[in-house]
Structure formats: C-alpha cells, structure tokens
Amino acid sequence: MAAAAMAGKQAKKRHDAQLKIKENEMYLTTLMKDFDKSADGRLDKSELGDLLQQVNKGVRPTEEEITWVFNVADSSEGPEDNTISMSELKVAITSWKTYMDNKPAIDSVFEKYDQDKTGKLEFHDLKNMLKDLNDGHEPQDNEVWEVMQKATGKGTNGQAFDYSETSAEGVGRMEVLYAITVWYAQEDQKQSEVTMSSSCCVVSR
Predict the structure, then answer these.
(1) What secondary structure letter does DSSP report for 109?
(2) 136-157: per-residue pLDDT in tens?
(3) Do 161 and 142 form a contact (C-beta atoms < 8 A)?
(4) Where in 43-183 does DSSP place strands (E)?
(5) Model-level pTM greater than 0.90?
(6) Which pLDDT score, from 0 to 100, does residue 194 have?
(7) Residue 193 vs residue 179, higher pLDDT
(8) What's the whole-number average pLDDT of the chain?
(9) Is residue 205 scored above 90 in pLDDT?
(10) Whole-number Cα distances in Å, 9 to 1, 17, 21, 51, 189
(11) What does the domain layout of the chain look like in residue ranges?
C-alpha cells in the first residue's frame, strides 16, 4: 500500500514536471512569435530589448543590460551570429531573471565599492571587494587581475600578470556576479592544492 502511494506521488511529480516544461516551451514560443518582427525565427538585439521590456513589466532595461543578455545568449550555442534563436532565448530569459533576482545585492556592491561612481568596478575597487570576501586579507594583484580578465570575458590565455592592464575598463554590473564566482573558484582551487600538498607530505613520511 505504501509502495503504491509512493509510486503515485512519483508519477504526479513527473507529470507536473512535464507540464511545466510544456508551459515554458509555449511561453517562449509565444514570446518569439510576438517579437520576431521579421518572422525568421530569430531575434536581433532591438527585438530582444522589446521582449525584455515586456518580461520586465514594461520597464525597459538599459542598453548595457540588453547588450549583456544578448551576448550571453548568443554565445551559448556555437559561434555567435548576432541573433537569438529559440533555444538561445531560453538562456536569455534565464540570464535576465537571475540578474534581476540578484540586482539588490549588485546595487549594494556598487554602492560600497564603486568609489568613483563610474558604474564599473575598476582594479582598486575590485581589490577592495575581494579583500572583504577574503576575510580582510588583501589579495595579490595578479589574483585580482585574473578575476577581472575572466569576469570581463577577456580570459588570461595563459598570460602572466600584466600590470598595465590593471587600469583597463573595469567589471560592470552584469559581470560582478561572475567575478565573485571566479574568486571563490580560485580560492577552492588553492585550498585543494594545499590539501593535496599536505597529504603528500604525510604519505612521504
């Protein structure tokens, strides 16, 4: 009896999940149809901006926000082609909602660390933020540089720390969450290396 009840609950969960997927697919299809003015099954940046305005309850995102969502979605599947397909639209909507869910926290970060009020976390701003994330311990300049390079999409490409690039354009509002993710990933990697080194020492004794 209990097994039958459990099986029934699992079946209902699967049914509800499938229903949710279909609802999301219908929602995306409707959005694409409503905003794809050229009817070619793809959205350009202007059309995506109009779509995000509707998703955002009539408030149009800034041009910087639209560009960020567009670039994230366009690069999510294969080479960039300056258009958003149906599958890329799902990435665009998810990226936008994640950004909006975290916007209050992002606003707080920029209020505290954007000393020059440029709308970007420049090298010294980012260093101050990472210092706080690092329990008050100041990070090395090369660590800050690596976070900045990765967060802004430039990557390090195996390059050594280049101090001349510390004055380059900083981390924007849409990039700061990724910067924090990169920092914690680097710290996890360092901790793993320390743990492995300690283990090796113990074994060698």
Answers:
(1) H
(2) 999 999 999 999 988 887 766 5
(3) yes
(4) none
(5) no
(6) 63
(7) 179
(8) 85
(9) no
(10) 13, 12, 18, 37, 41
(11) 40-102, 114-198
Q: Is the CA virtual torsion 79, 51, 97, 41 positive or negative?
A: negative
| CA angle, residues 152, 153, 154, in degrees to nearest 5 | 95
The C-alpha atoms of residue 66 and residue 53 are separated, in whole angstroms, by: 10
What single-letter amino acid sits at 45?
K
Q: How far apart are CA 73 and CA 103, in angstroms?
A: 19
Q: Which two tokens stand for residue 71?
A: 């670039």
**DSSP-derived secondary structure letter, 42:** -
Residue with tokens 């955002």: 56
Identity of the amino acid at 7: A
Residue 13 pLDDT > 80: no
Q: What is the pLDDT of residue 79?
A: 79
Domain at 40-102: CATH code: 1.10.238
φ/ψ bin of 36: left (φ > 0), alpha (ψ from -120 to 50), beta (otherwise): beta
Instruction: Say if CB 53 and CB 61 are below 8 A apart.
Output: yes
Each residue's pLDDT tens digit, 65-74:
999 999 889 8
Q: What is the residue-wise DSSP string for 140-158?
A: PHHHHHHHHHHHTT---TT
How far is it, in rounded angstroms, from Cα 96 to Cα 60? 12
Long-range contact set of residues 28-35: C-beta below 8 Å, sequence gap at least 24: 28/86, 28/89, 28/90, 28/93, 29/86, 31/55, 31/89, 31/93, 32/86, 32/89
Tell which residue, 126, 110, 128, has the closest CA to residue 118.
110
pLDDT of residue 183: 93
